Known about the structure:
mainly alpha; two-stranded antiparallel sheet; 2 strands; RDD; transmembrane helix; RDD family membrane protein YckC; membrane
Amino acid sequence: MELVDKLHMQGFKEASLxxxxxxxxxxxxxxxxxxxxxxxxxxxxxxxxxxxxxxxxELIGYIFLAxxxxxxxxxxxxxxxxxxxxxxxxxxxxxxxxxxxxxRALIRSIVRxxxxxxxxxxxxxxxxxxLNRAIxxxxxxxxxxxxx
Length: 148
């Protein structure tokens, strides 16, 4: 039996690309704001575009860590991030139909962050996937569904 059929038999409906995009935007803005606050003095002192680029390069490890922790913890604990909560969608494991395990949530989060660094190319796959899954969903053995 195909995954689409299994999800529908369990009463799940895949989340729309629109809801996923809005959720992702909310999450990215939230984490970016937290990073900006954490390094406020550094950002304020970076007066030129060149200084801002250098600062961003210096902070890339912290930025990657912040995004990874945010997505990992929220997906593992709740099956959804703040953006997903607002959009009423959630991430579920394709085998248990429950929130992903800590391990799968971590893998999904890391792959998602690498995908963001490469212009969201892995997320473009969601356009052709019947369940609107991006590469990080497939690797993390998860799917994003409506949260009833």
